[in-house]
Amino acid sequence: MESVIGVSGNQVFLYPASDLAVVVSEHNPAEILNQKSGVDHARVIADCFQHSTVLPFRFGTIFNDDDSLRKSIRSNQRQFLGHIDKLRGKTEMHLKILVDDCSSHPAGKRMPVEGANREYFTTLRENAARQRERQTRARAVSFQMHRLFLPLDEEVSCRLTDSGKMMLDVAHLIDRKGVERYLNKFSATCALMREYQMQLSGPWPPYHFVHRLTCGTHSHPQPSGVAVPIPATALPLVEGLPEAIAVLA
User: Fold this and answer.
1) DSSP string, 120-169
2) Same domain assignment for residues 230 and 188
3) Which of 15, 189, 190, 191 has the greatest number of CB atoms lying within 10 Å of its CB?
4) Strand pairing of 20-27 and 13-17?
């Protein structure tokens, strides 16, 4: 771990906790965690991901002392080990798909409630119809992507852009050995489906799926005023020892 630098340039340590190990670095509560800190955190995760299964805690997770860190890992040990088993050998590919607004209804007008009348309720119905059409289109595109890429798992979100188009964010969980096949499938899909603007990034540590699995299991800071270890990323120890859980470095 000597070559890995943590948040704010701090040294990164492998910290044994029960049957697991955590990658941590110290943090002074007087220092504010900013965007660069988040980049540092992501870099540690990415570095460790090259060598092992990574189970990162959310950025900004802080423990006051060694005992609170050890207690958190011990109390959630079974869940963490299960999550590592589920994500071992897996990676995340991230698709962004820009889709034209399919709604046949004109953009609704914004009207105050005080002026409720026939036009007002007509506008409400039109807006509801537009939303249903968008949801139907988003589900259809998402299903199409699922059939094409056949991921092990997926997370999909949709939002309306300022230009009036729909942006689908699709996270696919796949086997790390299948990255090349996925890239080839993406190239073929772009050539076939020219009506969509598609962007691909990855492979990444499975952020979306880690946070879904570990929701509600993380410990968070109590008082400030002392240097605290901040969990970082995961990396196996030497052969024969357990894998590490990632938190924040």
Assistant:
1) HHHHHHHHHHHHHHHHHHHHHHHHHHHHHH--SEEEEEEEE-TTS-EEEE
2) no
3) 15
4) antiparallel
Rounded to whole angstroms, the Cα distance separating 98 from 199 reads 9
Task: Give this prediction's pTM.
Answer: 0.68
Q: What residues contact residue 34 under an 8 Å CB cut-off, 6+ apart?
A: none
**If you ran DSSP here, which 8-state letter would residue 175 be given?**
E
Question: Do 109 and 65 fall within a single domain?
Answer: no
Q: pLDDT tens digits, the chain, 249 residues: what are they?
A: 566 777 877 788 887 766 677 888 887 777 888 888 888 888 888 888 887 888 887 787 888 888 888 888 888 888 888 888 888 899 999 999 988 765 554 544 554 555 557 777 777 787 788 778 878 888 888 898 999 999 999 999 888 887 778 889 999 999 999 999 999 999 999 988 888 889 999 898 888 887 665 554 444 433 333 333 333 333 322 222 334 433 344
CATH of the domain at 162: 3.30.70
On whether both 110 and 200 belong to a single domain, the answer is yes
With CA atoms as reference, report the closest residue to 204 among 91, 100, 105, 96. 91
Give me the phi and psi of 134, to 5 degrees please: -65, -45
**What residues make up the domain containing 172?**
91-204
Residue 156, token pair as written in the block: 């999909």
Query: Torsion angle, CA of 61/67/70/73, rounded to 10 degrees?
Result: -50
What whole-number distance in Å separates Cα of residue 167 and Cα of residue 159?
5
